[in-house]
Design goal:
Layout lengths: L13 E8 H5 L4 E6 L17 E4 L8 E4 L4 E4 L4 H4 L6 H4 L4 E2 L9 H10 L1 H7 L10 E7 L5 E8 L9 H9 L4 E5 L2 E11 L8 E10 L9 E10 L2 E8 L1 E4 L5 E4 L6 H15 L2
Antiparallel strand pairs: 1-2, 3-7, 4-5, 6-7, 7-8, 8-13, 9-10, 10-11, 11-12, 12-13, 14-15
Length: about 280
């Protein structure tokens, strides 16, 4: 799908890669998928993210130099790919002492969310396009998790044009006016509410998203709402999302309870990656 000027940014501001597997906590296959890092809010195109480590979509990139020739000069540049970006992923211990690298997971699919969002907020789609439309941008991601199922994720989307979005405030206001999105998956009914705000500390296209996911109607009753926070920014042609999601555990009475996400780590890790990317791309 071509990139409409209406679409702000990625599948980064609502990243579908954050999956909290309640099956481990509750003994059933409930899954809560966070989508904020996967939307195109704040960028010129949309990329799909997977839930795990390593590269999930697109071509390999970064292994061979690209040479462009003009009648006057010949310029050789090395494209940014996983070999260049891999050192920028934080260590699990940088996030917290109880974090470990998450195993690779199947890439998420935003098509259900896209259809549900189009139904819930047709005025936004008509004006700005589909924020969750599929893209084939090369994507590299690393997930981290804890025994109480808190999630953290860093996602790189490579090759995206990143003009400053002059109407970002207008787009954010229009998106935030949309109602909750409802859809069915994995035997549950989901209600997803996403709210954006400008985050100038990460540059003119910096965005902070807060997403609340509520699952109901499935085999596990009284599933608590889970919240994810996603910081999104762009350096050159690399769009980055840094995501923290609540965990779900079982208390002493056998009830599911929320374990608060490590929100305080989102900003410093995002800014550290941003500084390293600036060095890499200049």
């Amino acid at each position: 799908m071509s990139t409409p000027p209406s679409r702000l940014r990625r599948r980064a501001l609502l990243s579908l890669g954050l999956t909290v597997a309640l099956g481990s906590a509750s003994g059933c296959g409930v899954q809560v998928n966070a989508h904020a890092g996967s939307s195109s809010m704040g960028s010129s195109s949309h990329a799909s993210t997977g839930g795990g480590s390593g590269r999930t979509t697109g071509s390999t990139g970064g292994s061979s130099p690209t040479t462009s020739t003009t009648p006057a000069t010949t310029t050789t540049t090395t494209p940014i790919g996983y070999p260049q970006l891999e050192p920028l992923f934080p260590k699990a211990s940088d996030i917290g002492p109880d974090y470990r690298m998450a195993p690779r997971q199947t890439s998420g699919d935003d098509s259900v969310l896209d259809r549900a969002f189009t139904k819930a907020c047709p005025a936004y789609v008509a004006r700005f396009g589909h924020p969750f439309a599929k893209s084939t941008l090369p994507t590299f991601n690393q997930g981290y998790t804890t025994t109480d199922h808190r999630q953290f994720r860093v996602v790189f989307h490579v090759g995206e044009k990143a003009p400053v979005v002059t109407d970002l405030a207008t787009r954010i206001s229009a998106f935030n006016a949309c109602p909750a999105v409802h859809y069915a998956a994995s035997g549950y009914q989901y209600a997803v509410t996403i709210r954006y705000q400008a985050y100038p500390g990460l540059g003119p296209n910096g965005i902070l998203a807060t997403e609340q996911i509520q699952a109901s109607g499935g085999p596990t009753p009284n599933v608590p709402a889970v919240t994810a926070t996603v910081a999104i920014f762009t350096v050159g042609r690399v769009r980055v999302s840094v995501e923290a999601t609540d965990g779900i555990s079982v208390d002493s009475t056998g009830h599911l309870v929320v374990v608060p996400r490590d929100l305080f780590q989102v900003d410093p890790i995002a800014k550290s990656i941003q500084a390293q990317l600036k060095t890499l791309t200049h």
